[in-house]
TrEMBL record:
InterPro entries per record: AtBBR-like (IPR043312), Znf_RING (IPR001841), Znf_RING/FYVE/PHD (IPR013083)
Record keywords: Metal-binding, Signal, Zinc, Zinc-finger
Xref: PANTHER family: E3 UBIQUITIN LIGASE BIG BROTHER-RELATED
Signal peptide: 1-23
SMART domains: RING (SM00184)
UniProt keyword annotation of Metal-binding present: yes
UniProt domain RING-type: residue ranges: 71-112
Keyword Zinc-finger part of the UniProt annotation: yes
Matches recorded under SUPFAM superfamilies: RING/U-box
Molecular function per GO: zinc ion binding
PROSITE patterns with a match to the protein in the record: ZF_RING_2
Name this polypeptide is given: RING-type domain-containing protein
Amino acid sequence: MKWLQRKMMILMITVGTWDDVDPDELSYEELLALGEVVGTESRGLSADSISSLRSVVYKIQNNQNGSSDTCVICRLDYEDGENLILLSCKHSYHSECITNWLQINKVCPVCSTEVSTSSGTGTPSC
Ligand SMILES: [Zn+2]
Ligand SMILES: [Zn+2]
């Protein structure tokens, strides 16, 4: 059931109801229904495309304004040395978080820019 809860979380963030819904209160049938919604509306990237995204290692910077970078998917602050994926829109996320996200929805969770991979325009080698 863990995979389903993760999909639930992503779906709820997508529709903006995360704060109102407690997954523990949903029935198994409701969980299944949500899982099917995610499944039928899946327009995600392939694993190959995701793996070709630009990855970076997060480095803590001492900003004077004290702003810290936070992964909006899991809502945790990045830690020094963590692997992130930098999207073409300059937003970055934990590689694990954005990988799960992009498998379902190939847009940036923050700005809704469609994620494109630079290798997508070439002709496939045959
Ligand atoms: Zn994260
Ligand atoms: Zn973005």
